[in-house]
Amino acid sequence: MNDLNDISQEEFEKIEAYLHGELSGDEVVSFEDLLKTNPEFKTKFEDIKAVLTGIETQSMKEQLDDFHNDVQSSESELIVNEPKVRSLQWKKIAVAAVLIIGLGSFWLFNGSSNDKLYSEYFLPDPGLPTTMSSTDNYEFYEAMVDYKRGKYETAISKWESLSKAKPNNDTLNYFIGVAHLANKNENLALSYLESASKNLEFPLIDDTYYYLGLAYLKDGNVEKSKESLEKSTLENSKSLLSKLEK
Amino acid sequence: MREAYETNNKLQVVNAIKDNDSKILRTIYANNYPKIEALVLKNNGTKDHAKDIYQEAFLAVWQNVKQDKFIPVSESSVNGYLYTIAKNKWMDVLRSQGYKKTIVASQLQHFEIKDEENNGIDDDILKDKRLEDVMLAFKNLGEACKSLLRKFYFEKKSMNLIAEELSLDSASTRNKKYRCMQKLRQIVLKN
Question: Domain RNA polymerase sigma-70 region: where (chain B) (predicted)?
């Protein structure tokens, strides 16, 4: 790095083109020849290479705190860690609820067949286990307790205030969506569930598509409903889909 | 067919990392952090420790992929590699002087990685003195040059696009880039 000013623009651009693989075959040969025979040029080359790496690395480093905003809560971790508990509860409650709703729907619902199907299949997500001791997401789980008690409005308003800080949090979007749906506001549910379904890595993606399908069904949009249900691997999705196809 | 898919998939991850595809990098970052945080919290660290260690590891993985020192076969091998590097780094911290006094050996039992497994995996390019100097100089470079160089070398935007953004012709843009490089190298020299 001693002879700073003797890298000309031309030399610099040549080195850059070489590093980016933009030289032709002949040019590469003569460039590499120069590297071997001219130690001064070799020094300049190493210098530019280090500077380019430094620019890139510092730029990346400056992005990481922004990346970190996406992960500051460990909600998704909790979901990943507790699938067993969750699915067991799900099955038990699902069996019970399908029985109740199935019996109930005989006399309660006289609407169209799609409404009947919706009622037959809709059951609010059981929610996440609320063990608060070791979590800093106190507000999130406090709302979860409201949700589980059926106080959907309260849960929604708490989650929505959290969501202002983290508009792209898929777990929040999912539960706000499901709560709106449980609260019979399928219109409001749609946009939240749509956003939650944007992240294919989301651990609850199959549930998201399932509820999205239900929301569209309730909204009278059968085509959209089928589209979402097709993306979900849940058994309920498949069976609802097969009934819609009839 | 399956093989073709896997090759394609592998290339995608490698190319995304090499191109600094921020969407993919962001996903990799977010997906792997919780595991590292859990590890550090379980082993006498705080959330801030976890974040620092994780970001160092993330940069090292990113650089190693760029320089073909590590060639991932899939996204999950990136995840495993990232975890191992972060774990090694946290282990190094725990072994360092400051920690030795306060931590009893038995508290380290969570770590099952043997020493020989660490060799060669974490040849940390970030400890290179020259690179550190350039990074510091670039950090403190004036915003106009900084943003120009960032567009070229990090965002990898084309010359034409950048020239258009600056409302300059491409010859002036190239000259500007050259002068910014000179300025940056001057700061590195001074330090």
Answer: 29-98
